[in-house]
TrEMBL record:
Belongs to the LRWD1 family. Keywords: Centromere, Chromatin regulator, Chromosome, Cytoplasm, Cytoskeleton, DNA replication, Kinetochore, Leucine-rich repeat, Nucleus, Repeat, Telomere, WD repeat. InterPro entries: Leu-rich_rpt, Leu-rich_rpt_typical-subtyp, LRR_dom_sf, LRR_LRWD1_dom, LRWD1, WD40/YVTN_repeat-like_dom_sf, WD40_repeat_CS, WD40_repeat_dom_sf. Residues 216-236 are annotated as: Disordered. It comes from Myotis brandtii. GO terms for biological process: chromatin organization; DNA replication; establishment of protein localization to chromatin. This is Leucine-rich repeat and WD repeat-containing protein 1. Gene3D superfamilies: Ribonuclease Inhibitor, YVTN repeat-like/Quinoprotein amine dehydrogenase. It comes from the Eukaryota. GO terms for molecular function: chromatin binding. Residues 6-195 form the Leucine-rich repeat and WD repeat-containing protein 1 LRR domain.
Length: 650
C-alpha cells in the first residue's frame, strides 16, 4: 500500500462525505501501512475524527503530530508498535486497543495510564485497575526521587549547583532509584526520569502527581485476580503432620530440619525465608484443587553484559493445563496461558534477537512449554499469545531445554524414547515460527533430564534416563542425522549402577556434574566430566570419576528434580516431605583429594512452612522441583498439591 490519499480516506470514512473535515469514523485496517504512510498534513485535516482503526498493518510507531485532537477511540491491534509515548497527542482518548503488538509489554500498559487521563478501556477491559497500580507506583517513586534530590543537592557546594549538576541528578536518579518488580523496571525508569526532570524544572519545589482522573465508584472495577494467594507473605512456620495418604520415608535428618548449619558447623551465609504460596494452576480456578501436579519451572533470562546465564526474578511454572509467569518479588502472576486438555511437564526459555522490517533489533524472550500431547508451544508471554506449535513427538514430552550457545536450538525428550534437536528459527512477518528438525537421538529408555555439557554444549549432550545416564555426540558437522548413545556412564562404588534410573542431572560449573538416581538412595553424586571423559578411551561404558557425595533423603520415590545455581556453587533438591535441600559445594570442590568418604551434609534445609490458611487442607506436600535464579535471591518450589512456593532473601 502506498501513501494515503484524500480519495481513500473519503472512501473508508463515515459518514460518507466529500469533505475530510466531516468524517467522524475512519477504517484504515488491513492496508499494510507503514509508519511513514501516516501523513500528518493529510490526517490533520480530519478535524472531527473521533474513531480511527489502524489494525492489521505494519506500523512500528505513530507520528507524534497527527493533529487528531478530538480522537476518542483508537484501534492499533496486530501491528509492530514498540512504544506508546506518541499517544499523549490524543488527550481525549477513551478507548484503546493494542492487542497483537509483540513488542509491547505490561510496562507500556502502565505508561498509557499516565499519557491518557480520560482512558476508560484498554483492549476491551476496564482501565481502572491499571490506573490504580500506576498511581501507587508513581506515589512511591515520587517520594524516593524527592529524597534522592534532597540528598543529591545537600552534597553540592553553591558553585556546583549548575545546569550540568542538575543533568547529573537526572542521570543518577534513573540509575539509583528503584521500586517495584523487575518486570516493571522499564516503566519505573521512565517515570523516574519524568519526575526528576519536573523536580529540576521547578527548582526542587514541586513534583506533579500523574494527571489521572479519579474514577467514580461505579466505574471502578476490581480486577479479578489471576492467582489466588493461599498464604500471606512470610507466614509463621507451623509444624506439619504427616498425611496418611502419602507414601513417605522418615529422614534421619528430620531432627535438624529448620536448623541449618554449614558443613563446618557454622551458620550459612545465604538465608531464605518463605514469601508467597500460590494456587495459580487450579482446574477451573477452584481454590479446592489440591491435586494438580506441578512439574517444572524456569527463571526468565535477564540481559547482563558478558553474562549469558543471568536470570531475572520472573519465573515460569507449569502443571495441569496452565503455564504461568510469576514475579517473585510481589507474588503477582504476570501472565497465564491455558491449553485445555493438555498437561504441561516442562518449560524452557530462550532470548531471541528479532529484526523488524525497519531493521531495528528487538530482544524477545520466548517460552517453550510441552507435555502430554507431544507438542511444543512457543509462547510470547508478554504479548500474551502462542506464536507457534511444533508437533514434535507422538508420545508425551518429558522434558526440553534450549542450547546455551544457539538461541534457536531446542532439544525435546519424549516417552517415545527419542530426543530431537530442533531449530525453531526466528518468527516471520506474521510472528509465527517455522521449526526444522536437525537431529534425532535414540535412547534405550525414557529420557527424563537433558543437560548440554557445559564446557562443550555444541558437541555433547547428557541425558538422565530411566535406564541410566547417557551421552550423545550432537555436532552438526557430522553426516549422520540419527544417532545412538555414544557413551553410558555408570556410578560405581555402590552409589549407582548401570541400567538404573538417573532422574536428576545438572552442571555445577563447567566441569562438575550433580546427578541423582535410584541406585544411590539418600545421596547426590558430584562427578567430573573432564576426568571421566579422558578415562573413556574407546569404551562405550565408563565409570564416572566421583568427587563427592551429598547427603539427601533416603526415599525410594522418584522424579524429584535437582537443579544448580552455577554462579553461587549451589545444588538444590526437593524431597517427599516438602523440604528443600540446599548445598553450598564451593568448599567441597576446592578440597584436595582424597575427599571425605562419608556424604556431605546439606548447608541448609528449608522446611515446608505450614501457613495458617492451609492448616485444614494441606498437611503434607512433596516438592517435585526447585529452581533458584542466577543471583540466588529467589527460589521457587513446585509441589504435588498444586502449590507454588516462593522463598527469598532479606
Amino acid at each position: 500500500m502506498g501513501p494515503l490519499s484524500p480519495r481513500l480516506l473519503m472512501k473508508r470514512g463515515r459518514p460518507k462525505s466529500g469533505r475530510l473535515g466531516r468524517i467522524r469514523s475512519l477504517d484504515l485496517s488491513g492496508l499494510e501501512l507503514l509508519s511513514e504512510h501516516l501523513d500528518p498534513k493529510l490526517l490533520s485535516r480530519l478535524k472531527q475524527l473521533q474513531e480511527l482503526d489502524l489494525s492489521n498493518n505494519q506500523l512500528e510507531m505513530l507520528p507524534d503530530n497527527l493533529g487528531l485532537a478530538h480522537l476518542r477511540v483508537l484501534r492499533c491491534c496486530n501491528n509492530q508498535l514498540g512504544d506508546v509515548t506518541a499517544l499523549c497527542q490524543f488527550p481525549q482518548l477513551e478507548e484503546l486497543s493494542l492487542e497483537g503488538n509483540p513488542f509491547l509489554t505490561v510496562n507500556d500498559n502502565l505508561k498509557v495510564s499516565f499519557l491518557l487521563p480520560n482512558l476508560r478501556k484498554v483492549n476491551g477491559k476496564d482501565a481502572s485497575s491499571t490506573c490504580s497500580q500506576a498511581e501507587n507506583l508513581n506515589r512511591e517513586l515520587t517520594i524516593r526521587v524527592t529524597a534522592h534530590w534532597e540528598k543529591f543537592m545537600a552534597s553540592l557546594s553553591p558553585e556546583e549547583e549548575t545546569e550540568k549538576a542538575k543533568a547529573d541528578f537526572v542521570r543518577s536518579a534513573v540509575r539509583d532509584v528503584h521500586y517495584g518488580p523487575e518486570s516493571l523496571s522499564e516503566f519505573t525508569r521512565w517515570r523516574v526520569r519524568v519526575i526528576s526532570e519536573e523536580l529540576v524544572a521547578s527548582g526542587g519545589t514541586q513534583v506533579h502527581e500523574a494527571d489521572i482522573p479519579e474514577k467514580s465508584p461505579k466505574a471502578t472495577a476490581v480486577q479479578e485476580p489471576k492467582a489466588r494467594p493461599v498464604a500471606c507473605k512470610r507466614p509463621d512456620d507451623v509444624p506439619l503432620n504427616l498425611s496418611p495418604n502419602k507414601r513417605v520415608c522418615t529422614s534421619p535428618l528430620a531432627q535438624v530440619e529448620g536448623r541449618p548449619t554449614g558443613s563446618d558447623g557454622s551458620q550459612p551465609t545465604l538465608q531464605l525465608e518463605p514469601l508467597y504460596f500460590l494456587q495459580c494452576h487450579s482446574k477451573n480456578n477452584s481454590p479446592k484443587d489440591l491435586s494438580t501436579q506441578l512439574w517444572a519451572c524456569a527463571f526468565e533470562p535477564a540481559w547482563e553484559e558478558g553474562h549469558t546465564g543471568a536470570t531475572s526474578q520472573s519465573v515460569a511454572t507449569c502443571g495441569g493445563e496452565a503455564v504461568c509467569v510469576i514475579d517473585c518479588q510481589t507474588g503477582i502472576v504476570l501472565h497465564k496461558y491455558k491449553a485445555p486438555g493438555e498437561e504441561f511437564f516442562s518449560v524452557a526459555w530462550t532470548a531471541l534477537t528479532v529484526v523488524t522490517q525497519a531493521g531495528h533489533k528487538k530482544r524477545w524472550n520466548v517460552l517453550a512449554a510441552a507435555g502430554l500431547r507431544g507438542q511444543v508451544r512457543l509462547l510470547h508471554v508478554r504479548a500474551g499469545f502462542c506464536c507457534g506449535v511444533i508437533r514434535a513427538h507422538k508420545k508425551a514430552i518429558a522434558t526440553l531445554c534450549f542450547s546455551p550457545t544457539h538461541e534457536t536450538h531446542l532439544f525435546t525428550a519424549s516417552y517415545d524414547k527419542r530426543i530431537i534437536l530442533w531449530d525453531i528459527g526466528v518468527p516471520n512477518e506474521d510472528y509465527t515460527f517455522q521449526a526444522s528438525q536437525l537431529l534425532t537421538l535414540d535412547t534405550t529408555s525414557t529420557p527424563l533430564r537433558l543437560c548440554p555439557v557445559a564446557s562443550c554444549p555444541d558437541a555433547y549432550l547428557l541425558a538422565g534416563c530411566e535406564g541410566g545416564c547417557c551421552c550423545w555426540d550432537v555436532r552438526l558437522d557430522q553426516p549422520q542425522k540419527r544417532r545412538v548413545c555414544e557413551v553410558e556412564f555408570i556410578f560405581s562404588e555402590g552409589s549407582q549402577a548401570s541400567g538404573q534410573r538417573v532422574d536428576g542431572l545438572a552442571f555445577v560449573n563447567e566441569d562438575v556434574v550433580a546427578s541423582k538416581g535410584n541406585g544411590g538412595l539418600g545421596t547426590i553424586c558430584l562427578w567430573s566430566w573432564s576426568q571421566t571423559w579422558v578415562s573413556r578411551g574407546s569404551q562405550s561404558t565408563v565409570a564416572v570419576v566421583v568427587l563427592a557425595r551429598l547427603q539427601w533423603s533416603p526415599t525410594e520415590l522418584a522424579y524429584f528434580s535437582l537443579s544448580t545455581c552455577p554462579d553461587k556453587g549451589i545444588v538444590l533438591c526437593g524431597d517427599e516431605e516438602g523440604s528443600v535441600w540446599i548445598y553450598d559445594v564451593r568448599h567441597i570442590l576446592m578440597q584436595q583429594p582424597p575427599l571425605p568418604a562419608t556424604p556431605q551434609a546439606p548447608t541448609q534445609i528449608l522446611k515446608w512452612p505450614q501457613p495458617r490458611a492451609l492448616s485444614q487442607t494441606v498437611t503434607r506436600t512433596m516438592v517435585n522441583t526447585v529452581v533458584a535464579n542466577s543471583t540466588f535471591t529467589y527460589l521457587t518450589a513446585l509441589t504435588d498439591s498444586n502449590i507454588v512456593a516462593i522463598w527469598g532473601r532479606d
